[in-house]
Amino acid sequence: GRRAYAPPAERKRFYQNVSISQGEGGFEINLDHRKLKTPQAKLFTVPSEALAIAVATEWDSQKDTIKFYTMHLTTLCNTALDNPTQRNKTQLIRAAVKFLETDTVCYRVEEPPALAELQKNEWDPVVTWAEKRYNVTIGSSTSILGPNIPASTKETFVSHLASYNMWALQGIEFVITQLKSLILSMSLIDRHITVEKAVLLSRLEEEYQIRRWGNVEWAHDYDLCELRARTAAGTLFVHLCSESSTVKHKLLQD
């Protein structure tokens, strides 16, 4: 999957105060008296006041150095504004739905029996929920070729995703690439499961192996926290880009 892109990893903090203001094209981020720009030098303008506040909070929380790799909402906004891959709405939707063909929760093992049972117990309820929620057939398979997803199921998801705007679709694809699953991503975005649950289900086999064989603790914990952070940011981004109401207070609160 395509990743959102970002500027260099770190830079010395060059501003004191962060605020937001409303411009002609939406809400802007101000670093002292400078307006934030995208990597392609476009004015950084977001459609939602709540999203602007969330992005401003990312910038305000930076200390002596700006750690761009921690600023997932800013990165997603840059991707939505610059659209570096130059894809339209139809292409974004098709890319998201294509993940159904290799969806994590659709690929099952037969051995070892304990892992096969774990997959059934943990993944089947999510697949069943998705089938009922979207009135589709998904299923699962132990074949290396994966399940045979009906064309009607793919078209249903295409129609559903078409109800989201371009910004939200960028966030949906970002979440899907983190979880390697359209089904888990839509379950999360539809608030059926939590970020922690979605991440756990996406890493089910890895977590099983860790419980069995142990792990390098710091590396596992770091990877887990990073995946949770990216998944949470992507989900929040989708919700804020789909939000119709606005937040009353434009300025950051102390």
From TrEMBL:
Principal localisation = mitochondrion
Keywords assigned by UniProt, alphabetized: Chaperone, Membrane, Mitochondrion, Mitochondrion inner membrane, Transit peptide
One Gene Ontology term, aspect cellular component: mitochondrial inner membrane
Q: Which Gene3D superfamilies match?
A: ATP12 ATPase (1.10.3580.10), ATP12-like (3.30.2180.10)
Membrane-topology descriptor: Peripheral membrane protein
The answer on whether this UniProt entry bears the keyword Endoplasmic reticulum reads no
Q: Which InterPro entries match?
A: ATP12_ATP_synth-F1-assembly, ATP12_ATP_synth-F1-assembly_N, ATP12_ortho_dom_sf
Biological process annotations from GO: mitochondrial proton-transporting ATP synthase complex assembly
Q: Where in the cell is it found?
A: Mitochondrion inner membrane
Q: Which Pfam families match?
A: ATP12 (PF07542)
Function per UniProt: Plays a role in the assembly of the F1 component of the mitochondrial ATP synthase (ATPase).
Family of this protein:
Belongs to the ATP12 family.
Assembly behavior: Interacts with ATP5F1B; involved in the assembly of the F1 component of the mitochondrial ATP synthase (ATPase). Interacts with FMC1.
Q: What is this protein called?
A: ATP synthase mitochondrial F1 complex assembly factor 2
Annotated organism of origin: Peucedramus taeniatus
Q: Which gene encodes it?
A: Atpaf2
